Amino acid sequence: MPLVEVKETIRGQASEVYGLIKDMASYPQFMESLKEVRVLEQGDNWTITAWDSTLNGMSFKWKERDEFDDAACRIRYAQTEGDLKKFEGEWIVEQAGDQTHIILTVDFEFGVPMLSTLLNPVAKVKLRQNGEAMLQAIKQRFENNRQNN
Fold this sequence. Notes:
CATH architecture: 2-Layer Sandwich
Strand order of the largest sheet: 1-7-6-5-4-3-2
Mean pLDDT: 90
Shape: globular
């Protein structure tokens, strides 16, 4: 099962960056690859969200359970239904002096063994590019919000 990990550093407080990352429903406002993210259910430290995304011209839809650890600034997510057999990972937000490090991991599996050997390398590259674009969009959104406040 391929694992993708991408990282970004933002000048600012981890709790504020985490707050932006936690607001997944706002992602389509500043992330090109996302058409829609809807919160379907919500509890004290979890949500069920529905995602509609485009990756390399292909549409992907899924639902995931997001579990929030606000004290540690971590979000674990796992697909509950969707286009892939497995799609899960974690957002890790850590303070480092006056900067915040973000680590996004994605662990995925197509579920078709014969196709996996052909598709996994390509998908891994595309998911890495998409993850990097997501982190860049979060960085730009956070920095723009700080300048405007």
